[in-house]
Structures are given as structure tokens and as C-alpha cells.
Write a structure and sequence with these properties.
Elements (H helix, E strand, L loop, with lengths): L2 E2 H8 L2 E3 L5 E2 L1 E2 L9 E5 L2 H9 L4 E5 L8 E5 L2 H12 L8 E2 L4 E2 L4 E2 L4 E2 L4 E2 L4 E2 L4 E2 L4 E2 L4 E2 L4 E2 L4 E2 L4 E2 L4 E2 L4 E4 L4 E4 L2 E4 L6 E3 L4 E2 L4 E3 L6 E3 L4 E2 L4 E2 L4 E2 L4 E2 L4 E2 L4 E2 L4 E2 L4 E2 L4 E2 L4 E2 L4 E2 L8 E3 L4 E2 H12 L1 H15 L8
Parallel strand pairs: 4-5, 5-6, 6-7, 8-11, 9-12, 10-13, 11-14, 12-15, 13-16, 14-17, 15-18, 16-19, 17-20, 18-21, 19-24, 20-25, 21-26, 24-27, 25-28, 26-29, 27-30, 28-31, 29-32, 30-33, 31-34, 32-35, 33-36, 34-37, 35-38, 37-39
Antiparallel strand pairs: 1-3, 2-7, 22-23, 39-40
Length: 342
């Protein structure tokens, strides 16, 4: 597709500086941009490179005042970048209908605008909303609900009773609603506790590839609106994740823990069970959380501690070799000298 700079500015809420009729057919990074390309610069350093590039137009932050090329000014260049990229690379369209190879239970209700792709299995009493897409090889267990404009990539699995909101994206290999890890020791063996809860995914959530979200033991496991979950994440039974949180790859949240709104768990964070993590908490990568965290705090380390405390511990540990050498030197100097014979 080809757009003028004015058309793009209108789509992303920007302002054109220069020739609004400049034709743009591609979005490209600054180091490979060619004539006819739009690139972006979120700071002065990138802007200087963009000016020297072959790009025909530059998407710039509002704090960049002058531009010798055609520029599109937006409040935040990275936000504008995300919106413009969607314009040049739209989601693939899927035609409404059910593929002949799909197996669909007679009691299911599938909107006429939804797409059910090859080799999907749709269980009894499943509801699939308008413009929802099941790309292929998806298993949807009985009594599940999929909201409008939700998209399931190939090989995703929803166990029975899973409820998915609107505009949700679930990537390949994700499994929602598998049994929580619940056992009780009895007569020398681990007795399984039946997991009879559900999983509820609210609107505008994205779930990465090979992520698993377990059903609750009795109450539901809940992912709040707007939350984004990376690949290879484990969410255990009865966990509640608040709105607009970010959970990065290989993180794991143990059972019955509650995360607040706008929480960030960086890569490989582990959170123990039955904890309360407050709103706007950030936990640094590879941290092990064993205690409740109040609102607004940043924690790191294993075991995780408030960031200032943890940084002091880290800085102190870096001095240990020097301290040990000083102690050894003091010990040697304090030893009494042996008596010498006259």
C-alpha cells in the first residue's frame, strides 16, 4: 500500500512538517531505509541518522523542532511507530465461515462473521463471537466462550469452561485451563485435588506462545483487561492478575497469588504462592519473590528485596574479596612473633 504523509499523519494523529503529498510505500529502520520509505526517530541521535538516510519521511517526537525532510510530528515517536507499522503491515484477513475439516459440536454457537480454520475442534455449547478467528488446529473445550475480534493462532488449546473476552490474542502452543498443580499427601501417596474452577481472560489481553494458565481449584484464575503475557510463562491456579500488567518470558506465578494493576514482572521472575503484589510494582529479572510487596515499589534479587536494599547488598558483596584480603592481612600481623633464643 502507498500513502501520502498527510494520510499517515491523519491515521496516527500527527502533524506534517514539509510536503504532505510525499508518497510513502514502506516503513523501514533508519539503517536500511530507501527513497519512498518512512522511518522514525525517537531522540536527537536517531534523528541525525534519519536525516542522513535515504528515507523520504521521518516520524519524529514533538520535542524535535526542525526537519529538513518531510516529517510527521507526534507526541511520542514510538507510539506513532506502532500505529504506523499497523497501517503498513495489517493483520491478515480471514474470511467468515467454517472449514470443512473442522469438527464442530451441534450445540455450539458460532457467529456468522467468525472464522474457524482447518482441523479445529469446537466442543459442545461453545460460543464464538463476531469476527473471532481460529486459525487452525485449535481445540476449544465444551462451555467455553470466545469474544468478538479475538484471534487464536494455530495449536492453541482451551480446556472446558474457559472464557475469553474481546480482542484477545493467544499465540501458538498456549494452553488455558489445564489442571492446577494441587495435591494432598495421604496414605503415603500424593492424592490429586480435583481442579473444578475456570480461567477468565478479560478484554485486550495478549498471551504468548507456549504459555500455560491453569484453571482454578474452585474459584477462577483471572487475567485482567489489557494485560500482556510473554512466551513461556506459567500462571498457576487461582492467580489473579490485575489490569494492564506485563509478565515477561519464563516468569512463573504460584497459586493463589494476586497481582495488582500495572505490575511488571521481568524475565524469569518467580513469585511464591498466596502473596499480594500491589499496584504498579516492578520486579527485576530473575528475582525470587517470597513476601508481599506494597504498591509502587521496585524489588530485585533472590530472595527479592526493595531495590535500594538489594543494591546495597550487591555493592557490599562486590567488596568481599578486598575485605577478606584485609582481614587475612590483619590476622597475619596480629599473630605473636615466636620467641627467639638468646
Amino acid at each position: 500500500m502507498t500513502y501520502t504523509a498527510t494520510q499517515i499523519a491523519g491515521f496516527i494523529g500527527g502533524q506534517v512538517i514539509g510536503d504532505g503529498s510525499t508518497l510513502l510505500h514502506r516503513f523501514a529502520p533508519v539503517n536500511s531505509a530507501e527513497p519512498g520509505d518512512l522511518t522514525f526517530a525517537e531522540n536527537e541521535a536517531f534523528f541525525e541518522k534519519a536525516i542522513q538516510s535515504a528515507a523520504s519521511a521521518i516520524l519524529i517526537d514533538s520535542d524535535i523542532s526542525t526537519c529538513s525532510k518531510t516529517c510527521i510530528r507526534v507526541p511520542q515517536a514510538r507510539v506513532g511507530f506502532a500505529k504506523a507499522l499497523a497501517l503498513f503491515f495489517p493483520e491478515p484477513a480471514f474470511s467468515p465461515g467454517i472449514h470443512p475439516s473442522a469438527v464442530v459440536a451441534p450445540s455450539s454457537k458460532i457467529d456468522s462473521t467468525a472464522h474457524v480454520g482447518p482441523h479445529c475442534i469446537v466442543g459442545e455449547r461453545v460460543e464464538i463471537g463476531p469476527r473471532a478467528v481460529l486459525q487452525g488446529l485449535n481445540f476449544i473445550g465444551e462451555d467455553s466462550v470466545i469474544g468478538e475480534d479475538t484471534r487464536l493462532f494455530p495449536n492453541t488449546t482451551l480446556y472446558a469452561g474457559t472464557r475469553i473476552g474481546k480482542r484477545v490474542r493467544i499465540h501458538s502452543g498456549a494452553v488455558l485451563g489445564s489442571d492446577g498443580f494441587g495435591y494432598v499427601f495421604d496414605a503415603g501417596a500424593h492424592l490429586k485435588i480435583p481442579q473444578v474452577g475456570t480461567v477468565i481472560i478479560h478484554d485486550d489481553v495478549e498471551i504468548g506462545a507456549n504459555t500455560t494458565i491453569d484453571r482454578g481449584a474452585m474459584e477462577p484464575t483471572v487475567i485482567g483487561r489489557g494485560t500482556k503475557i510473554d512466551n513461556l510463562v506459567q500462571i498457576a491456579h487461582n492467580v489473579v492478575v490485575g489490569e494492564h500488567s506485563i509478565i515477561v518470558a519464563q516468569a512463573g506465578v504460584a497459586g493463589s497469588t494476586k497481582l495488582g494493576r500495572y505490575v511488571i514482572l521481568a524475565g524469569q521472575v518467580g513469585v511464591a504462592g498466596h502473596l499480594e503484589i500491589g499496584d504498579r510494582v516492578t520486579v527485576a529479572a530473575q528475582s525470587g519473590v517470597m513476601h508481599n510487596i506494597p504498591d509502587g515499589q521496585k524489588w530485585l534479587g533472590s530472595p527479592a528485596q526493595p531495590d535500594r536494599t538489594a543494591k546495597r547488598v550487591i555493592l557490599a558483596s562486590l567488596k568481599l574479596p578486598e575485605i577478606l584480603q584485609r582481614i587475612a592481612k590483619l590476622e597475619r600481623s596480629s599473630k605473636p612473633k615466636p620467641d627467639t633464643e638468646a
